[in-house]
Design goal:
mainly beta; four-stranded mixed beta sheet; 2% helix; flat
Length: 332
């Protein structure tokens, strides 16, 4: 049962479509009269459906339930005054259909078919070979000595006859006729749908597709904005190159005096050199890189000095070895 504005909803009650859609707590199987379309409708658990929208197969007639006990007769009320005759009320809606009866019992199993006749007995096989002699029985008591008869002649021992072979097995009797099939019992009710099986395993990974064609070569970028050579070097102790491009070696000429040798020569000596140096972890003093003579710049190498001071002023410069020297070279 459900309630609308504290009114109980009975099977077959009349509601407009709007009132029907406002109902709550309706259970599957509830039947109402839709007064908007003047049709009986039942609730199937999710939607209201006209009772005349196709009927499924009728189940077997269930057994009739027992008749309920007769209710007690209420006391006669006092006779009221006779009122005027009211207008005839409209015909009541069709009562809800009875629930489908349960499935009838399964019919009896058919009788067992007759047994087939027994096949004929096969012929008896040939006599088998004689069995071995049994063990010697106990010696009987000594009988009374009889008189001695005359000794007869000893006969010759006859030859032992051959052992007869085993006779063939007789044929198997014919199969008896099958008994008749009993009548088929009625079909049982539809079983519940089984649960969905687990997902199958993932299929094997497909083979790798062929490699796509190589894209066209991109246009060359400008070369006059890229360093044609550079080096990061340690100028202390044995001079060493940390990293470089187009530098083949460093010549340590003297304290703070180095020559950078290029792997590929420049086209001319109009290239630009950008350099700097610093002392790792040292405090105070100045360090700078410079070249003293133009003829120290060639297309294959450049000679330069690293000078420094021990004070904050650029005075009293002298060549020094420092652990970080960086230089880059540009040309068009």
């Amino acid at each position: 049962m459900a309630f609308l504005d504290n009114k109980q909803i009975n099977f077959g009650a009349g509601y407009t479509t709007t009132e029907r859609d406002a109902l709550s707590g309706v259970t599957a199987g509830t039947v109402i009269l839709n007064t908007t379309v003047d049709k009986l409708q039942h609730y199937n658990g999710s939607d209201w459906v006209d009772l005349d929208q196709g009927t499924g197969p009728t189940g077997a007639q269930g057994a009739t339930g027992p008749t309920g006990a007769q209710g007690a007769t209420a006391a006669q009320g006092a006779q009221g005054a006779t009122g005027p005759t009211g207008p005839t009320g409209p015909t009541g809606a069709q009562g809800a259909g009875g629930s489908t009866g349960g499935t009838g019992p399964t019919g009896p199993t058919g009788a067992q078919g007759d047994d087939g006749s027994t096949g004929p007995t096969g012929p008896t096989g040939a006599q088998g070979a004689a069995g071995s002699n049994g063990s010697t029985g106990p010696t009987g008591a000594q009988g009374a000595a009889g008189g001695t008869g005359p000794t007869g002649p000893t006969g010759s021992t006859g030859p032992t006859g051959p052992t007869g072979g085993t006779g063939p097995t007789g044929p198997t009797g014919a199969q008896g006729a099958a008994g008749g099939t009993g009548p088929t019992g009625p079909t049982g009710a539809q079983g519940a749908t089984g649960s969905t099986g687990s997902g199958g395993p993932t299929g094997p990974t497909g083979s790798t597709g062929p490699t796509g064609p190589t894209g066209a070569q991109g246009a060359g970028g400008p070369t006059d904005q890229i360093a044609q050579a550079w080096v990061n070097m340690d100028g202390t102790g044995t001079v060493a190159i940390r990293s470089d491009y187009n530098v083949t070696s460093i010549t340590d000429n003297n304290t703070g005096d180095y020559t950078i040798n290029f792997t590929s020569n420049f086209a001319d000596t109009d290239y630009c050199m950008v350099s700097h140096a610093y002392r790792n972890g040292s405090s105070g003093g100045r360090v700078l890189c410079h070249t003293d003579l133009f003829n120290l710049i060639t297309v294959s190498s450049v000679r330069f000095n690293v000078s420094g001071t021990n004070n904050a002023q650029v005075v009293g410069l002298s060549n020094v070895d420092v652990d970080h020297v960086h230089a880059s070279f540009f040309n068009d």
